[in-house]
Protein backbone atom coordinates (compact mmCIF):
# COMPACT_ATOMS: atom_id res chain seq x y z
CA UNK A 1 0.00 0.00 0.00
CA UNK A 2 1.21 3.52 -0.85
CA UNK A 3 2.36 5.71 2.02
CA UNK A 4 2.65 9.48 2.12
CA UNK A 5 5.99 10.82 3.35
CA UNK A 6 5.73 14.19 5.10
CA UNK A 7 8.77 16.26 6.09
CA UNK A 8 8.56 18.40 9.21
CA UNK A 9 11.12 20.51 11.08
CA UNK A 10 13.31 18.31 13.28
CA UNK A 11 13.77 20.83 16.06
CA UNK A 12 12.77 24.46 16.00
CA UNK A 13 9.87 26.84 16.19
CA UNK A 14 7.58 24.77 13.96
CA UNK A 15 8.32 21.30 15.39
CA UNK A 16 5.94 21.16 18.35
CA UNK A 17 3.04 22.72 16.45
CA UNK A 18 3.54 20.36 13.51
CA UNK A 19 3.57 17.31 15.78
CA UNK A 20 0.54 18.65 17.68
CA UNK A 21 -1.37 19.03 14.41
CA UNK A 22 -0.66 15.41 13.44
CA UNK A 23 -1.59 14.16 16.92
CA UNK A 24 -4.92 16.00 16.71
CA UNK A 25 -5.47 14.42 13.30
CA UNK A 26 -4.97 10.99 14.86
CA UNK A 27 -1.45 10.46 13.53
CA UNK A 28 1.22 9.84 16.10
CA UNK A 29 4.21 11.87 14.97
CA UNK A 30 6.50 12.22 17.93
CA UNK A 31 9.13 9.63 18.56
CA UNK A 32 11.92 11.15 20.59
CA UNK A 33 14.15 8.07 20.32
CA UNK A 34 14.36 7.85 16.54
CA UNK A 35 13.94 11.27 15.07
CA UNK A 36 14.92 10.34 11.55
CA UNK A 37 12.17 8.60 9.71
CA UNK A 38 9.22 7.55 11.73
CA UNK A 39 6.54 5.25 10.41
CA UNK A 40 3.44 6.50 12.16
CA UNK A 41 0.05 5.00 12.89
CA UNK A 42 -0.54 1.73 11.04
CA UNK A 43 -4.14 2.77 10.33
CA UNK A 44 -3.09 5.93 8.53
CA UNK A 45 -0.41 5.48 5.85
CA UNK A 46 1.78 8.49 6.66
CA UNK A 47 5.49 8.51 7.47
CA UNK A 48 7.18 11.49 9.05
CA UNK A 49 10.61 12.67 7.98
CA UNK A 50 12.45 15.05 10.33
CA UNK A 51 14.63 17.65 8.60
CA UNK A 52 16.18 21.13 8.90
CA UNK A 53 13.47 23.52 7.75
CA UNK A 54 15.71 24.91 4.98
CA UNK A 55 15.84 21.47 3.30
CA UNK A 56 12.09 20.86 3.29
CA UNK A 57 11.05 22.78 0.12
CA UNK A 58 13.70 21.06 -2.01
CA UNK A 59 12.89 17.60 -0.65
CA UNK A 60 9.24 18.13 -1.52
CA UNK A 61 10.04 19.61 -4.95
CA UNK A 62 12.34 16.65 -5.73
CA UNK A 63 9.85 14.08 -4.45
CA UNK A 64 12.14 12.82 -1.65
CA UNK A 65 9.17 13.77 0.52
CA UNK A 66 5.63 13.99 -0.84
CA UNK A 67 4.59 16.85 1.41
CA UNK A 68 6.00 19.03 4.16
CA UNK A 69 5.33 21.67 6.77
CA UNK A 70 7.46 24.80 6.50
CA UNK A 71 7.32 28.60 6.81
CA UNK A 72 6.31 30.46 3.64
CA UNK A 73 9.46 32.57 4.07
CA UNK A 74 11.61 29.46 3.53
CA UNK A 75 9.72 28.50 0.36
CA UNK A 76 10.10 32.01 -1.05
CA UNK A 77 13.77 32.19 -0.15
CA UNK A 78 14.64 28.80 -1.67
CA UNK A 79 12.47 29.48 -4.74
CA UNK A 80 11.54 25.79 -5.00
CA UNK A 81 8.52 24.74 -7.06
CA UNK A 82 5.99 23.29 -4.63
CA UNK A 83 2.25 23.64 -4.19
CA UNK A 84 0.73 25.09 -1.03
CA UNK A 85 -2.04 22.69 0.02
CA UNK A 86 -3.11 24.48 3.21
CA UNK A 87 -2.20 27.49 5.32
CA UNK A 88 -1.79 26.26 8.88
CA UNK A 89 -2.19 29.43 10.95
CA UNK A 90 0.86 28.93 13.19
CA UNK A 91 4.47 30.16 12.95
CA UNK A 92 3.13 33.57 12.04
CA UNK A 93 5.74 36.28 11.56
CA UNK A 94 6.71 39.09 9.22
CA UNK A 95 9.82 40.06 7.32
CA UNK A 96 10.70 43.65 8.07
CA UNK A 97 13.30 46.30 7.44
CA UNK A 98 14.71 47.64 10.70
CA UNK A 99 17.22 50.40 11.38
CA UNK A 100 19.13 51.79 14.39
CA UNK A 101 16.91 53.72 16.78
CA UNK A 102 18.85 56.97 16.40
CA UNK A 103 18.88 57.01 12.56
CA UNK A 104 17.14 59.86 10.82
CA UNK A 105 14.50 57.95 8.87
CA UNK A 106 12.71 59.63 5.98
CA UNK A 107 10.82 56.76 4.35
CA UNK A 108 11.81 53.83 2.14
CA UNK A 109 14.31 55.92 0.14
CA UNK A 110 16.46 56.00 3.28
CA UNK A 111 17.65 52.52 2.29
CA UNK A 112 19.13 53.74 -1.03
CA UNK A 113 22.88 53.22 -0.97
CA UNK A 114 22.72 51.53 2.44
CA UNK A 115 24.07 48.11 3.42
CA UNK A 116 21.36 45.72 4.64
CA UNK A 117 22.20 42.50 6.50
CA UNK A 118 19.88 39.50 6.09
CA UNK A 119 19.59 35.71 5.96
CA UNK A 120 16.92 36.19 3.28
CA UNK A 121 18.82 37.70 0.32
CA UNK A 122 16.41 36.44 -2.35
CA UNK A 123 13.28 37.81 -0.69
CA UNK A 124 15.12 41.06 0.06
CA UNK A 125 16.26 41.38 -3.56
CA UNK A 126 12.64 41.20 -4.69
CA UNK A 127 11.42 43.59 -1.99
CA UNK A 128 14.07 46.15 -2.98
CA UNK A 129 13.35 45.79 -6.70
CA UNK A 130 9.59 46.13 -6.13
CA UNK A 131 10.23 49.38 -4.27
CA UNK A 132 12.91 50.78 -6.62
CA UNK A 133 15.57 50.77 -3.94
CA UNK A 134 19.23 50.34 -4.66
CA UNK A 135 20.96 48.89 -1.62
CA UNK A 136 23.81 46.51 -0.85
CA UNK A 137 22.74 43.11 0.46
CA UNK A 138 25.02 41.60 3.07
CA UNK A 139 24.24 37.91 3.56
CA UNK A 140 24.80 36.56 7.05
CA UNK A 141 23.74 33.28 8.67
CA UNK A 142 22.31 34.08 12.08
CA UNK A 143 22.45 36.99 14.55
CA UNK A 144 21.50 39.49 11.87
CA UNK A 145 20.27 41.87 14.53
CA UNK A 146 23.75 42.59 15.89
CA UNK A 147 25.13 43.73 12.49
CA UNK A 148 24.27 47.45 12.81
CA UNK A 149 25.79 47.68 16.31
CA UNK A 150 29.10 46.17 15.23
CA UNK A 151 29.23 48.25 12.07
CA UNK A 152 28.66 45.39 9.61
CA UNK A 153 25.55 46.96 8.12
CA UNK A 154 23.35 50.08 8.26
CA UNK A 155 20.09 48.16 8.54
CA UNK A 156 18.67 44.65 8.66
CA UNK A 157 15.94 42.68 6.92
CA UNK A 158 14.77 39.90 9.22
CA UNK A 159 11.92 37.94 10.70
CA UNK A 160 10.04 39.73 13.45
CA UNK A 161 7.30 38.33 15.66
CA UNK A 162 7.10 40.12 19.01
CA UNK A 163 9.76 42.69 18.12
CA UNK A 164 11.64 42.21 21.39
CA UNK A 165 14.85 41.07 19.64
CA UNK A 166 14.92 44.31 17.65
CA UNK A 167 14.23 46.37 20.75
CA UNK A 168 17.02 44.79 22.78
CA UNK A 169 19.47 45.48 19.94
CA UNK A 170 18.59 49.16 19.65
CA UNK A 171 16.71 48.70 16.37
CA UNK A 172 13.30 49.92 15.20
CA UNK A 173 11.06 48.13 12.74
CA UNK A 174 10.40 50.66 9.99
CA UNK A 175 8.82 48.71 7.12
CA UNK A 176 6.79 45.50 7.38
CA UNK A 177 7.32 43.97 3.95
CA UNK A 178 5.91 40.40 3.93
CA UNK A 179 3.79 38.23 6.24
CA UNK A 180 4.55 34.55 6.63
CA UNK A 181 3.05 31.52 8.36
CA UNK A 182 3.54 27.75 8.34
CA UNK A 183 1.99 25.97 5.37
CA UNK A 184 1.48 22.39 4.26
CA UNK A 185 3.19 21.99 0.91
CA UNK A 186 3.03 19.14 -1.56
CA UNK A 187 4.91 17.86 -4.55
CA UNK A 188 3.35 19.16 -7.78
CA UNK A 189 3.07 15.68 -9.30
CA UNK A 190 1.68 13.45 -6.56
CA UNK A 191 0.33 10.08 -7.65
CA UNK A 192 -3.44 9.63 -7.38
CA UNK A 193 -2.99 7.21 -4.48
CA UNK A 194 -0.83 9.66 -2.54
CA UNK A 195 -3.17 12.55 -3.31
CA UNK A 196 -5.97 10.47 -1.82
CA UNK A 197 -4.04 10.08 1.43
CA UNK A 198 -3.26 13.80 1.46
CA UNK A 199 -6.95 14.61 0.90
CA UNK A 200 -7.84 12.50 3.94
CA UNK A 201 -5.27 14.38 6.01
CA UNK A 202 -6.61 17.73 4.72
CA UNK A 203 -10.14 16.67 5.65
CA UNK A 204 -8.95 16.09 9.22
CA UNK A 205 -7.01 19.38 9.27
CA UNK A 206 -10.13 21.27 8.12
CA UNK A 207 -12.11 19.67 10.96
CA UNK A 208 -9.42 20.76 13.45
CA UNK A 209 -9.35 24.33 12.08
CA UNK A 210 -13.15 24.59 12.10
CA UNK A 211 -13.28 23.33 15.69
CA UNK A 212 -10.66 25.86 16.75
CA UNK A 213 -12.59 28.83 15.39
CA UNK A 214 -15.94 27.72 16.84
CA UNK A 215 -17.40 27.11 20.31
CA UNK A 216 -20.25 24.92 21.46
CA UNK A 217 -22.81 26.92 23.37
CA UNK A 218 -25.56 25.67 25.71
CA UNK A 219 -28.07 27.93 27.40
CA UNK A 220 -31.44 27.98 29.08
CA UNK A 221 -34.13 30.06 27.44
CA UNK A 222 -37.59 31.03 28.60
CA UNK A 223 -40.00 29.49 26.05
CA UNK A 224 -41.58 32.89 25.54
CA UNK A 225 -38.23 34.27 24.27
CA UNK A 226 -37.16 31.21 22.28
CA UNK A 227 -37.68 32.74 18.83
CA UNK A 228 -35.65 35.85 19.63
CA UNK A 229 -32.86 33.72 21.05
CA UNK A 230 -32.79 31.29 18.12
CA UNK A 231 -32.40 34.23 15.71
CA UNK A 232 -29.14 35.09 17.45
CA UNK A 233 -27.78 31.54 17.02
CA UNK A 234 -27.19 30.46 13.43
CA UNK A 235 -25.47 27.19 14.40
CA UNK A 236 -24.40 24.55 11.89
CA UNK A 237 -27.92 24.01 10.56
CA UNK A 238 -30.26 25.28 13.25
CA UNK A 239 -29.96 25.10 17.03
CA UNK A 240 -31.14 22.02 18.97
CA UNK A 241 -33.93 22.76 21.42
CA UNK A 242 -34.47 20.33 24.31
CA UNK A 243 -37.18 20.30 26.98
CA UNK A 244 -36.33 21.04 30.61
CA UNK A 245 -38.08 19.81 33.77
CA UNK A 246 -39.57 23.29 34.14
CA UNK A 247 -41.96 23.42 31.18
CA UNK A 248 -41.61 27.21 30.80
CA UNK A 249 -37.95 26.79 29.91
CA UNK A 250 -35.95 24.96 27.21
CA UNK A 251 -32.28 24.18 26.73
CA UNK A 252 -30.76 25.47 23.48
CA UNK A 253 -27.55 24.04 22.00
CA UNK A 254 -25.62 25.54 19.11
CA UNK A 255 -22.25 26.52 17.67
CA UNK A 256 -20.89 30.06 17.54
CA UNK A 257 -17.84 31.48 15.83
CA UNK A 258 -15.05 32.44 18.18
CA UNK A 259 -14.70 35.95 16.71
CA UNK A 260 -18.42 36.73 17.06
CA UNK A 261 -18.65 35.10 20.45
CA UNK A 262 -18.64 38.02 22.95
CA UNK A 263 -21.09 40.07 20.91
CA UNK A 264 -23.49 37.13 20.75
CA UNK A 265 -23.23 36.42 24.50
CA UNK A 266 -24.22 40.02 25.29
CA UNK A 267 -27.20 39.85 22.94
CA UNK A 268 -28.28 36.46 24.33
CA UNK A 269 -28.27 37.77 27.90
CA UNK A 270 -30.21 40.81 26.83
CA UNK A 271 -32.76 38.50 25.16
CA UNK A 272 -33.29 36.55 28.42
CA UNK A 273 -30.90 33.59 28.11
CA UNK A 274 -29.54 32.19 31.38
CA UNK A 275 -27.04 29.56 32.48
CA UNK A 276 -24.93 30.04 29.38
CA UNK A 277 -22.16 27.46 28.99
CA UNK A 278 -19.49 27.75 26.33
CA UNK A 279 -17.27 24.75 25.64
CA UNK A 280 -14.40 24.11 23.23
CA UNK A 281 -15.03 21.80 20.31
CA UNK A 282 -12.59 18.97 19.73
CA UNK A 283 -13.34 18.30 16.03
CA UNK A 284 -15.97 19.72 13.72
CA UNK A 285 -17.09 17.95 10.55
CA UNK A 286 -19.17 20.20 8.34
O1 LIG B 1 17.32 24.35 12.53
P1 LIG B 1 16.42 24.82 11.44
O2 LIG B 1 17.14 25.34 10.23
O3 LIG B 1 15.38 23.77 11.12
O4 LIG B 1 15.56 26.04 12.07
P2 LIG B 1 15.81 27.62 11.97
O5 LIG B 1 16.64 28.04 13.12
O6 LIG B 1 16.22 28.02 10.60
O7 LIG B 1 14.32 28.17 12.12
P3 LIG B 1 13.44 28.47 13.43
O8 LIG B 1 13.13 27.21 14.15
O9 LIG B 1 14.04 29.59 14.22
O10 LIG B 1 12.14 29.05 12.74
C1 LIG B 1 11.36 28.26 11.89
C2 LIG B 1 10.30 29.14 11.24
O11 LIG B 1 9.47 29.75 12.25
C3 LIG B 1 10.80 30.33 10.44
O12 LIG B 1 11.23 29.97 9.15
C4 LIG B 1 9.57 31.22 10.39
O13 LIG B 1 8.71 30.80 9.36
C5 LIG B 1 8.87 30.92 11.73
N1 LIG B 1 9.01 32.00 12.74
C6 LIG B 1 7.98 32.55 13.44
C7 LIG B 1 10.13 32.57 13.19
C8 LIG B 1 9.76 33.50 14.17
N2 LIG B 1 8.41 33.46 14.30
C9 LIG B 1 10.78 34.28 14.83
N3 LIG B 1 10.47 35.11 15.69
N4 LIG B 1 11.44 32.38 12.87
C10 LIG B 1 12.38 33.10 13.50
N5 LIG B 1 12.12 34.05 14.44
C11 LIG B 1 13.30 34.74 15.05
C12 LIG B 1 13.48 36.16 14.58
O14 LIG B 1 14.35 36.16 13.46
C13 LIG B 1 14.15 36.87 15.76
O15 LIG B 1 15.53 36.83 15.61
O16 LIG B 1 13.16 34.80 16.42
C14 LIG B 1 13.78 35.96 16.94
C15 LIG B 1 12.82 36.52 17.96
O17 LIG B 1 11.77 37.24 17.36
P4 LIG B 1 10.96 38.36 18.19
O18 LIG B 1 10.51 39.42 17.20
O19 LIG B 1 9.81 37.66 18.83
O20 LIG B 1 11.91 38.94 19.21
ZN1 LIG C 1 16.60 26.90 9.07
Reconstruct the topology from this structure.
Layout: E1 4-9, H1 15-24, E2 37-39, E3 46-51, H2 56-62, E4 67-71, H3 72-78, E5 83-87, E6 93-100, E7 115-118, H4 121-130, E8 136-139, E9 155-160, H5 164-168, E10 171-180, E11 182-186, H6 192-212, E12 214-222, H7 226-231, E13 240-243, E14 249-257, H8 261-270, E15 274-280
Characterize the structure shown.
With 286 residues, the protein is an alpha/beta fold. The protein has 3 domains: 119 residues, D-Maltodextrin-Binding Protein, domain 2 (3-Layer(aba) Sandwich); 87 residues, D-Maltodextrin-Binding Protein, domain 2 (3-Layer(aba) Sandwich), CATH 3.40.190; 67 residues, Alpha-Beta Plaits. 27% of the residues lie in helices and 32% in strands. The chain contains 8 helices and 15 strands. A 6-stranded mixed β-sheet has the order 2-3-1-4-11-5, sandwiched between helices. Strands 8-7-9-6-10 form a 5-stranded mixed β-sheet. The longest helix has 21 residues. The mean pLDDT is 93. The structure holds phosphoribosyl ATP and zinc ion. The site of phosphoribosyl ATP has 21 residues, from helix 3, strand 9 and helix 5.
Radius of gyration: 25 Å
Proper CATH architecture of the largest domain? 3-Layer(aba) Sandwich
Q: How confident overall, as mean pLDDT?
A: 93
Backbone structural class:
alpha/beta
Outline: flat
Can you identify the CATH superfamily of the largest domain? Periplasmic binding protein-like II
Q: Helical segment tally?
A: 8
Count of DSSP strands: 15
Helix percent band: 25-40%
Measured between the Cα atoms of the first and last residue, the distance is: 29 Å
User: Which stretches are poorly predicted, pLDDT < 50 over at least 5 residues?
Assistant: none
CATH class of the largest domain: Alpha Beta
How many separate domains make up the residues? 3
Bin the strand percentage.
25-35%
Each distinct ligand: phosphoribosyl ATP, zinc ion
Q: Give me the CATH fold name of the largest domain.
A: D-Maltodextrin-Binding Protein, domain 2
Q: Give the biggest sheet.
A: 6 strands, mixed
Strand line-up in the sheet with most strands: 2-3-1-4-11-5
One letter per element, helices H and strands E, the order comes to EHEEHEHEEEHEEHEEHEHEEHE
Amino acid sequence: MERLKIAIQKSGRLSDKSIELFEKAGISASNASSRLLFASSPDFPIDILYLRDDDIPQCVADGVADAGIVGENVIWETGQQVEVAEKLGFGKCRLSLAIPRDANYNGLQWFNGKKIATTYPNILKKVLADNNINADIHVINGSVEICPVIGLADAIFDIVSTGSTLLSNGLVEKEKMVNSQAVLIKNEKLSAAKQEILDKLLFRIHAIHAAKSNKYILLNAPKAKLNDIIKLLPGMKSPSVLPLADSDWVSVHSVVQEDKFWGIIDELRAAGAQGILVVPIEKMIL
